[in-house]
Amino acid sequence: MNIDDAIVKYINFIAIEKGLSLNTITSYKSDLELFRKSFTDINDTSLLTEDLLTDFIFILSINLKKSSSINRTISTIKNFYLFLEREAIVDNIITTNIELPKKEKRYLYI
């Protein structure tokens, strides 16, 4: 399936069936668009791999994103991958080996 079509199908799923808020849907859509723009040569869902997700984490980290933003974005992409598996759009894409960046510690200065 074309990745753009799969993204539309996923956005419809989280909006209609999961009933997520408009803000959450907007964030998910933004994360998926960023993922899509990072790999313009990948057009079919059959080409989505765990390695691609690992590469995406690296891209996010070199762009100096906060670990909390990276974690949310990766969570979105992992959920997208799981959706594609549940819908039998793709075969098993293993995402359990993906390690998320550790959260930054916040210090309270008084």
Task: Kindly summarize this structure in a few lines.
The protein has helices spanning 3-17, 22-38, 50-62, 67-86. It is mainly alpha-helical.
| Structural shape | globular
Largest β-sheet summary:
none
For the residues shown, what is the average pLDDT? 85
Distance between the termini: 55 Å
Radius of gyration: 15 Å
Question: Which secondary-structure class do the elements indicate?
Answer: mainly alpha
Beta-strand content estimate: under 5%
Low-confidence stretches: none
Helix content: 55-70%
Strands, total number:
0
- What's the number of helices? 4
Order of helices and strands: HHHH
Describe it for me?
The protein has 110 residues and is mostly helical. Helices cover 59% and strands 0% of the residues. It contains four helices and no strands. Helix 1 runs antiparallel to helix 2, helix 2 crosses helix 4 and helix 3 packs antiparallel against helix 4. It is globular and about 45 Å long.
Brief descriptors of the model:
single chain; 110 residues; mainly alpha; 4 helices; 59% helix
Give the helices and strands, then pairings.
Layout: H1 3-17, H2 22-38, H3 50-62, H4 67-86
Helix pairs in contact: 1-2, 2-4, 3-4
